[in-house]
Amino acid sequence: METVKTLIIGSGPAGYTAAIYLSRANLQPILYEGLQPGGQLTTTTQIENYPGFANGIDANELMSAMRQQAENLGTVIRSGMITRVDLSQRPFRIEVDGEWKIEADSLIVATGATAKYLGLPSELHYRGQGVSACATCDGFFYRKRDVAVVGGGDTACEEATYLASLCRKVYMIVRKPFLRASKAMQQRVFDTPNIEVLFEHNTVEVLGDESGVTGVRVRHTNGEERTIDLAGFFLAIGHHPNTDLFDGQLALDDEGYIRVEPGTSKTSVEGVFAAGDVKDPHYRQAIAAAGSGCVAALDCERFLRQ
Question: What pTM, to 2 d.p., does this model score?
Fold first, then answer.
């Protein structure tokens, strides 16, 4: 069985940033990319809010550059899935693709979170071409155009009001006859003149052509259908943190996100650190994930130097 100083699980901005810092500290990290190299950021296209790129940068280009930087500094990057971990004692035991292969003195968990989708074939087809799960990331591209937000909770209301500041019209598609958001968030929605809430509606199909999303077909609970012309379709029905591996081994919150000591990346198990969306139910931004990857690497380095 191979023994390593530190293992990083996950290859988004958090994982790659942690790898960069640990490599510069001469700790020879090994990083497993998992099923989605680059993380969920690669499901979008142009990024205009990541510092340092005056004209924006393609998401895949950014993640490729981070990967190359980590590799150039000495990170060993491997494909493959971490299928099981044993955190009951150090060194931690790591199973890769069904076989126990690695013992690690420390572990950085940067497995991210996955946006929940409706499961429509048309939604999948236009993902990244008008279908998005992040208004803060992609709303800028729909200035003075019409968009829709699916969901009725606080996140949906926040995203709708944010989009309303950029877009001509925002439709909220809500399957229930009420909003689940806090009273304050509901009031903010109702006070915004260019938001129209479609209660008791479900999305039937996302419409589009070779250029991307052009509209959406919705159905009222009474069976009536209507088609709405749109340029953007935003999902705000929640995220699922990728923490199934750690259930029962790390302390998780009620939604499944990894709990960390405030102001640190330290988890409930000494020597295990968390970074990025896997421990962040609020911000879910590339720059925030990268920053937390730096924190995790510094915490991990101090732990290993003790």
Answer: 0.79
At the top level of CATH, the class of 2-114+239-305 is alpha beta
Burial class (CB in 10 A: 0-12, 13-18, 19+), 192: middle
Across the chain, how many H-helices and E-strands are there?
7, 19
Beta-carbon-side half-sphere exposure of residue 46 (alpha carbons within 13 Å)? 11
Q: How many residues does the chain have?
A: 306
What pLDDT, in 10s, does the model give residues 251-264?
Answer: 999 999 999 999 99
Q: Choose the CATH number for 117-235 among 1.20.1080.10, 3.10.105.10, 3.50.50.60, 3.40.309.10.
A: 3.50.50.60
Tell me, what's the pLDDT at 44?
67
> What would the two tokens of residue 137 be?
């990331």
Distance from C-alpha of 215 to C-alpha of 130, rounded to nearest angstrom: 10
Q: What is the C-alpha separation between 174 and 193, in angstroms, rounded? A: 18
Active site residues: 134, 137-138
> What pLDDT score does 281 carry?
85
Q: What is the Cα–Cα distance from 25 to 273, expressed in whole angstroms?
A: 17
Q: Assess contact for 134 and 286: CB atoms under 8 A.
A: no
H or E element that contains 63: helix 59-72
Question: Which sequence spans correspond to the domains of the chain?
Answer: 2-114+239-305, 117-235
What is the C-alpha separation between 275 and 168, in angstroms, rounded?
36
Task: Tell me whether the CATH fold assigned to 2-114+239-305 matches the one assigned to 117-235.
Answer: yes
| β-strands 146-150, 57-58 pairing | unpaired
pLDDT averaged over every residue in the chain: 93
